[in-house]
Design a protein that fits this description.
The protein is α/β, with parallel strands linked by helices. Helix content is about 25%, strand content about 25%. It is globular. It starts with a strand and ends with a strand. The relative contact order is 0.17.
Length: about 325
Amino acid sequence: MLSWQTTPLRLSDVPVASPAPGELLVRVLACGVCRTDLHVVDGDLPVHRLSVVPGHQVVGEVVVAAPGFVVGERVGIAWLRHTCGACRFCLRGAENLCPASLYTGWDADGGYASYAVVPAAYALRLPSGYSSEALAPLLCAGIIGYRALKLASVPDGGRLGIYGFGGSAHLAAQVAVARGYEVHVVTRSSSARALAMSLGAASVSADAPPVPVDSAVLFAPVGTLVPPALEALDRGGTLAIAGIHLSDVPVLNYSRHLFQERVVRSVTANTRADAAEFLSFCASHRLSVAVQPYPLASANLALADLRAGRVTGAAVLVA
């Protein structure tokens, strides 16, 4: 397994965890490398547990089953790992806001390892027809992008701006195109611009959409993009910020950025219902998942490439 105390990750041999009642033990087949992992490793996010094993986009084969699952079944382990089920947020269907929520790769060991444990109630059933490497990015990048689209409130046939075009954005863009939205991508990466055009974007740019957009999703963790993204919104538009971490946002000008009922909102984790909806969509709409594979022992290189913007699509660790 790979665990961290300070950058870089450290490779260690440890005993395979024993699952508690109601938990699954899975053999890890692939694990996506998420920007959240990078924020945890780099210290942008507070430490929840020293020497935790990162990774929360895990595709694995069940080795020890729990009710509802069978040995040999392929399952997914995602970011959300536990909620209380009793607070007012859980009771109203907003378990992503549960104050007692716990997360894979932050509070509990994740998938940068050969084996991982997950509560059966939070294990995800996976669509067929995808390789394990292609499934891995769906389990956070895909799910959070799907939730961000929901919260961006794109009108039917509307124009959507996407800022940043990595592992999450290239999946969300395909959902948006499938729903008939006109997608305009803003990214500095030439390879990402080429990928966006191949996936059906109406325009790609390094600075701003060519037309006002009804909604936008900010995937890049760059606070200085908030003002121009708001400025690009048409009247009544919504900007959804999809990341768990964002650098400081500059001072906003009310008339230029917020007036005319423009809305800015954050996106916090996801619910299991979001995951089920998105994976059902993936079963009926074949997504093209751009994957850059790395062996598990090269996780530090994968994180360095992600940090430097050298990954097109999603980085994935493979067994």
